[in-house]
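Duplicate of earlier report; PspA/IM30 family protein input re-posted below.
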Amino acid sequence: MNIFKRIFRIGQAEIHAAVEKMEDPIKMTEQGLRELRDDLAEATEAYAKVKALAIRTENEQEACQKESAAYAEKAVLIMQKAQNGDISLEKGEQLAREALSLRRKYAADAEDLGRQAATHQQSGKEMLKNIEILKENLVKWEKELKTLRARVKVSKATQQVNKQLAQLDNNGTIAMLERMKEKVEDQEALAKAYGEIAQEKNDLKEELDNLLKDDSLSIEKDLDAIKEKLGIVTKTDE
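Output:
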């Protein structure tokens, strides 16, 4: 498994896509994650096989050790029978040699199986370590993918807004808004002018009314005052 090679390639996905704009960083990262998951599945399966092989080898080693010990006991029992006269010494030695030969064979097999089991266990440890690295990188890059997706959404939205802003004046929208603003200002100025003209007319009318107002009542009062001073009494006063 080229674990670090794949990780490096995933790491390059965003750089190449952003700088060279040749590939989609989201798709590149998703593809890298799929490959990492495949690697993880393969590594897990391989680890399980190596683990099973180590267990089977240890069981075979234990069986060989038992066989070796059993043949060692048989050699002793055979020589005891020869000593007791149950079988001849020559026959006993012959059978004992065969038993001891098998004991050595099973002992040698047990040692070989022990070395194999140790090798399998070491391989299993290394594979388990690689599996942990794969898991850590999967978690890391899944988080990176979420962040990357969010960044892509934001960049697309920003790009769209900036594009609209860039094209706004090209469509004459700003110029149209400026003209509408000027038109409203002109209408407001015209309304104010009409209001001032109406106020001026009211002021003129009031001035004319004051000038044309009847002063007869005031004159009569002045006349009455003179008559009172001179002591002239009119019939009305009587």
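Residues 89-168 form the longest helix (80 residues).

Merging into the original ticket.
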